[in-house]
Amino acid sequence: MREQEISDLIRFIDADPIICDAARTAEELTFPLFLVGGWVRDRLIGILSRDYDFIVQGDVKGFAGRLSGKWGASFFVMGRRDPPNYRIAGPDYTVDMAPQVPEGLEQELSRRDFTINTMAFSFGDREFLDPLGGGSDLSDRLVRMVSPAVLDADPIRMLRAVRLTTVLEGFQLEPSTASEIRRHPDRLSQSAAERVREEMDRIMVSGRAPQGLSLMQDLGLLQVVCPELLTLSGLDQGSYHHLDAFGHTLETVREVHGLFDTVPGEPKDRPFRFAFKMDPEDRIVLAYAALLHDIGKAQSRTLDSEGIPHFYGHEKIGAVMAGEVMKRLCFSNSRADRVERLIRFHVLGLGLIHAGYTEKALRRIIHKLGEDLPLHVLLSLSDRRAARGRNFHEMEKKNIMIGQALLDMYTEEGERLLRPANLVSGREIMEILDLAPGPAVGEVVEKVRMLQIDRVIQSREEALSFLRSLRKDRY
Fold first, then answer.
1. Gap between the Cα atoms of 334 and 281, Å rounded
2. What are the tens digits of pLDDT across the range 195-210?
3. pLDDT 10s digits, 32-61
4. Does the global pTM surpass 0.70?
5. Quick check: 248 and 294 in contact, CB under 8 A?
6. How far apart are CA 171 and CA 222, in angstroms?
7. Prior bond to 148 cis, omega within 30?
């Protein structure tokens, strides 16, 4: 590590208010303190970070309590180490604190995951410490395990290796580390599903998710995390696609990210008049929908008399399979529901491409997708752009036209289509049709709602007239 780089690092340390508060508090408590891990790594390669990691010689719980009280934040035990580690979670930062092992700082650093995370700054003598060669690996852009033992100690580190290689631009996985992961990728199944999902989340929104997913496949980790995806490898999709189903999936993930600029929510390549802000959760929902959108193709594949493959119903099968994947990875119900809905309806526009579209068809699509209609349009275009087979340019042009029509209608009529006014009550339906409470009432409510969406019924009088006509037909 060059002297100028270390000098710049110290200057940034001295200018960071979180670090300065921690250093002053440690000095008041007379605790030796070391800043280690990701903040040091990121700062040395020019990345701003709000995730801090300290090693403390002293009462870590007391240190965490003093700092959290000063910042008005809460702290809690993190993980299962003995003695425990602590985390302070602020509004836009996290501070992790670990006790130093009795054997000394170097022994503590040797228990960490990768060499680029073992560099440290000592506040006592204001020295940069790099006993395990992390600075050299950082310069060489290598993610190298500290030792094979650290992967055995915490198998999630195998997936973290992929995440770091993906998130840190230009980094590669060091060959012996890759070999060690390939020896026993199944160890990852020992890790809590929530930790696996957290690593996957960061891979999926990194902007380089296809590279990360390819590396997971190469290392054998994809088989552990989502074996359903591997059924797509080598699956021919016919003349409308230039890639097999797995390659198409990775390309769709790439295309989804390509629609966004570096500023979250701002589409970069604007084939539509797209005035919708996409928050971080929208981006991750869309990324997972792209990843899992064709997961049902292997199960649904059939061949016609000419040997041409078809995948009838793959979107419905895929939505069910994606639901199982998301349950396994402990997705929130809200996120799982959104991803599943996007997958279930992702081919709705294909019929419109071939048959043309009507306002009625557009309204029904908007009603089905709800507030995720803008995400549906982006997924649909990404899916089309990832399939550069026969008639690609003509079909893409139609896809853009339909997408724009959907977005325009959603902008103009979205509220009415998503939440049509209640023109008649359930009680009125029961009275007019002489129905008892039960599913039949709900079916009539849905009929009225769909007629409202189709603009057949637009007033209370028309709704009541429709109910009377139903009564007449029944009797």
1. 10
2. 999 999 999 999 999 9
3. 999 999 999 999 999 999 999 999 998 999
4. yes
5. yes
6. 20
7. no
